[in-house]
Amino acid sequence: MFETVVSNLIVKYLGKYIDIPPDSLNISLFSGNVELRNVKIKQSATYQFEEIPVTVIQGLMLYCSRSNHSSHLLQEMSEN
Fold first, then answer.
1. Predicted local distance difference test score (pLDDT) of residue 71
2. In angstroms, how far is CA 35 from the centroid of its own chain?
3. Where does residue 10 rank: exposed (0-12), middle (13-18), buried (19+ CB within 10 A)?
4. DSSP alpha helices (H): ranges in the chain?
5. How far is Cα 71 from Cα 79, in angstroms, rounded to an integer?
6. Phi, psi at residue 67, to the nearest 5°?
7. The pLDDT of residue 39
8. 48: exposed, middle or buried (Cβ count in 10 Å: 0-12, 13-18, 19+)
9. 20 to 30 A Cα–Cα from 11, which one of 17, 18, 43, 52?
10. Distance CA 36, CA 45 (A)
11. What is the separation, in whole angstroms, between the first and last Cα of the chain?
12. Distinct helix (H) and strand (E) counts, the chain
Protein backbone atom coordinates (compact mmCIF):
# COMPACT_ATOMS: atom_id res chain seq x y z
CA MET A 1 0.00 0.00 0.00
CA PHE A 2 2.71 2.49 0.98
CA GLU A 3 4.65 1.51 -2.14
CA THR A 4 1.67 2.66 -4.22
CA VAL A 5 1.70 6.06 -2.53
CA VAL A 6 5.45 6.46 -3.17
CA SER A 7 5.01 5.28 -6.76
CA ASN A 8 2.25 7.85 -7.35
CA LEU A 9 4.44 10.63 -5.93
CA ILE A 10 7.35 9.64 -8.18
CA VAL A 11 5.09 9.63 -11.24
CA LYS A 12 3.56 12.97 -10.20
CA TYR A 13 6.89 14.78 -9.85
CA LEU A 14 9.04 13.01 -12.46
CA GLY A 15 6.31 12.20 -14.98
CA LYS A 16 6.75 15.46 -16.84
CA TYR A 17 10.38 14.54 -17.57
CA ILE A 18 10.28 10.77 -18.08
CA ASP A 19 7.85 8.04 -19.11
CA ILE A 20 7.55 5.61 -16.21
CA PRO A 21 5.97 2.26 -17.14
CA PRO A 22 4.78 0.36 -14.04
CA ASP A 23 7.29 -2.46 -14.56
CA SER A 24 10.24 -0.04 -14.61
CA LEU A 25 9.77 1.11 -11.01
CA ASN A 26 10.96 -1.04 -8.12
CA ILE A 27 10.32 0.18 -4.59
CA SER A 28 11.48 -1.58 -1.46
CA LEU A 29 10.54 0.58 1.49
CA PHE A 30 11.93 -1.62 4.25
CA SER A 31 15.39 -1.58 2.70
CA GLY A 32 14.96 2.04 1.57
CA ASN A 33 15.65 1.42 -2.12
CA VAL A 34 13.94 2.96 -5.14
CA GLU A 35 15.06 1.87 -8.62
CA LEU A 36 14.11 2.99 -12.12
CA ARG A 37 15.09 0.84 -15.11
CA ASN A 38 14.79 1.48 -18.86
CA VAL A 39 12.97 4.79 -18.57
CA LYS A 40 12.49 7.00 -21.64
CA ILE A 41 13.30 10.67 -21.29
CA LYS A 42 10.60 12.88 -22.83
CA GLN A 43 11.49 15.36 -25.55
CA SER A 44 9.84 18.08 -23.50
CA ALA A 45 12.10 17.37 -20.49
CA THR A 46 14.28 20.44 -21.04
CA TYR A 47 11.63 22.89 -22.29
CA GLN A 48 11.27 24.70 -18.95
CA PHE A 49 15.04 25.11 -18.61
CA GLU A 50 15.52 27.74 -21.30
CA GLU A 51 19.02 28.64 -20.10
CA ILE A 52 20.27 25.13 -20.88
CA PRO A 53 21.14 24.88 -24.58
CA VAL A 54 20.15 21.21 -24.85
CA THR A 55 17.37 19.58 -26.84
CA VAL A 56 16.35 16.01 -26.14
CA ILE A 57 15.79 14.13 -29.37
CA GLN A 58 15.73 10.68 -27.86
CA GLY A 59 16.82 9.60 -24.42
CA LEU A 60 16.92 6.45 -22.34
CA MET A 61 17.95 6.12 -18.72
CA LEU A 62 19.00 2.52 -18.22
CA TYR A 63 19.29 2.52 -14.44
CA CYS A 64 18.81 4.97 -11.60
CA SER A 65 18.85 4.08 -7.91
CA ARG A 66 18.22 5.94 -4.67
CA SER A 67 18.82 4.52 -1.21
CA ASN A 68 17.40 5.94 1.96
CA HIS A 69 18.10 3.78 4.95
CA SER A 70 15.00 4.19 7.10
CA SER A 71 16.49 2.06 9.87
CA HIS A 72 18.86 4.95 10.62
CA LEU A 73 15.93 7.37 10.80
CA LEU A 74 13.95 5.04 13.03
CA GLN A 75 16.94 4.67 15.36
CA GLU A 76 17.30 8.46 15.65
CA MET A 77 13.59 8.85 16.39
CA SER A 78 13.69 6.22 19.13
CA GLU A 79 16.68 7.90 20.80
CA ASN A 80 14.82 11.23 21.19
1. 54
2. 7
3. middle
4. 2-14, 70-79
5. 12
6. -115, 135
7. 92
8. exposed
9. 52
10. 17
11. 28
12. 2, 4
